[in-house]
Amino acid sequence: MTDFKKMIGKIEDSLAAVSFAEEGEFESARQMLGDNRRVVLAVRNSNVDKKTLTYVMNTCSRIKAGLDILYVPSAGPVETALEGFLAELTRNRIAYRMVQKAGCLKQAIIEYANTRKEVLFAVIESSDNIDADCAGKNRDLSVSWKKMKCPLVVVSEAAKA
What we know:
Elements: H1 2-22, H2 26-33, E1 38-43, H3 50-63, E2 66-71, H4 78-81, H5 83-91, E3 96-100, H6 105-114, E4 119-124, H7 141-145, E5 152-154
Parallel strand pairs: 1-2, 1-4, 2-3, 4-5
Helix pairs in contact: 1-2
């Protein structure tokens, strides 16, 4: 039960800090969050929606958090896929780091977020293909996310084909 209470507290702190930042109280938001806070952007494909990238960049900028880009490739190098976005992060003075993992994206997000106290929340573009390389009992999305110790933000759902 203490993990649940910690998670609720972390969510409340994050939402309060975002509220302060939206009102222009950047210093108050920064103090609430501490200096070493991170947002995780988890991506699988090389074509990440511009809406998702803009959301992540604006949020990091407002709350003065760094960005960890967790990339679990299905094919192709990440550098060419996110090259323009990385340049924009640099122009906006948002510290970022690339982290490449293999296998199940969902499991990579949970493991990454749960082993780093500085992670405020994780962002994914869509939940449609997040289970693509997951096997067995980890395929149930709702059960797996309960293991994560920070909030998950789904920016947009992919269009149905």
